[in-house]
Amino acid sequence: MSFGVPCVTISIPVDVLTKCLILKAHSGLHCTYRCDRRRVSYEYASRPAQPFAGHDELKLGQEADDRTSVALALNAALPPRYLRSAGEHGNVSVESPGFFSDAAFGPNRHSFPGVSAWAGRIQRCSPAKRPQKRSAGHTETRSPQTEMTFMKKQTCLTASLALCLLLTSSNAEAKDFYLTIGGGSAPPGNQASLEKNVLFYQRLLHEQKRDLSRNDIYFADGRAAGDDLQVMDRESLPKANRLMAEFFGSQRNLGLLYRNHKIVGVRDDTTPASIRSWFTDVGPTMDSGDRLMLYVTAHGHSSNDRDSPHNTTISLWNNKSIRVSEVVNLLDTLPQGVRVVAVMVQCHAGGFARFIYNEGDSDKGLSSQHRCGFFATVHDRPAAGCTPEINEATYVEYSTYFWEAIAGHTRAGNPIDVPDYDNDGRISFAEAHAYTVLRADTIDLPITTSGEFLGIESLFANDRYPELLSDMAAWDSVLPLATPAERAILEGLSDQLQLTGNDRIEVARRQVQQLRRRRGGSRGQRVNPAVQLRQRIATDLKRQWPGLANVLNPVAVDLLTIRKDEFISAIEKHRDYKRYREQVDTASVPPDTEKRKVKYERFIRTAENIILLENLRLLDDTKRLEQYQSILEAESESLSAVLADSPVDATAHD
To answer: Longest C-alpha distance within the chain, in Å?
Structure first.
């Protein structure tokens, strides 16, 4: 049995139609969209224009008079819910930059790149019907026929040309703006890794061939000539000094120095006044549909207001700061229709996940501005990663993994297994976040705006709602609801943590509690074999040169200077040195208790988000589902997509 047929009549402005290029009347159009929480491919195959009664068939490229119209029968594999929604809404008047709108399809916002403005009526023809089973284990799904009648005043092209314009024109109009805020509040806290983060991001933007004419960087002291960056370059020291520190002293702060940052094209420093000036000077130049990419690689602090624990801060130059509430106020000044995507890696970054709400306060409702974000950790924890070390191979902070997931390679240029979890040929922000959650061996507990929204707006089973899923839901009831990215996290962390069985969520919770009690204890920890070998080498050299017991002894000073070759040779020719170096370079160190605990917490949080979304569906809270859908669509965009080309059905699982 076929689906019902909802009819759509759309009036297209003549000035828009005349911009279309002449294409073949039989040309096919293929578009891939994200529907539900899985990948679905829709094939839009245009057919020759069908004439209306009383009119001749319109030939390719032929001009026609005012009476002429063209109808196009379009095969569209739309999910049943979309058709049901259309039928439920009946006659709807629409003015939207989208192709199908919220009014037509409820929480399922189709963001077809379309003309800047159009008007249409969606007329109910017949309700959708579920497909019948063809045979056991099989379901027959026929594409509904959606007929679109395109009208004009002077010139009428084929409907396939109008469809082509709808699918392509607005991408050329919308623009991306890049705003990067980086650095510490003073030279001792402005580590080299913050500079390297900005440079890696800029390399990525160039690789992705992004238009950087609207790319603004605010970093530390801006264009000032002073030494504002703390750098640790051990390799710059003589080898004898490095070995002396390694075996007889301390490597802490070895090679520490200060220099001016090397970021080219910095707009200004990161004082609050400078950040506000961007929103005064650049913000008004944005248009509806434009996207702001906000990247923050800095330090941050927790809130000092007990009544507003999520109102955390970004540290700015000269020991200043800016809070969630002020960032929200600045974003509110942007023109209507501007969209915001944030990636923030400072400590306590998770407080900014609530910038989706008015004034950053979840009690004041969701902001009308479309915002989404990805954050290194929750509001009440520090984040990993800030270091003066210049060796980028040692960096393990959030954005290292996030940007390399999108780039397809590490900072050093080594290829990675690209996290295209849904196999749609692109890496979305959500997939980059999932890759980071799965791969980052840090103390971070990363979160997203969609997860923060679910934690606030949904709930687990309780006495009032016993029909909902509990936070201890069985594994086989949670995994089928996961997106491909969520499934990758759950299955990947299950392997890493050796979680098995249907009760693995409950087991993970018990493990977190045990590791919290164990944290800080040193009893039973295994001694690193590299440490033992280093001590043995140092003891033997002290027998040869007793003055090495104090590195300021004249003997030690001579071994660092006039006798340095003798000193280096004595260490490198020691019978245990080769084995020691192998242990340092390749030995497996027992996992840190805090890092292991965090991996359990990441597993639990991912499962909770899946459960909370399902419960929101069970509650049938249409408004909140629409709001969640809007956030999720934004998170499903990619760096190279100016407009969201992958609508997601937040209310259906498969």
So the answer is: 109
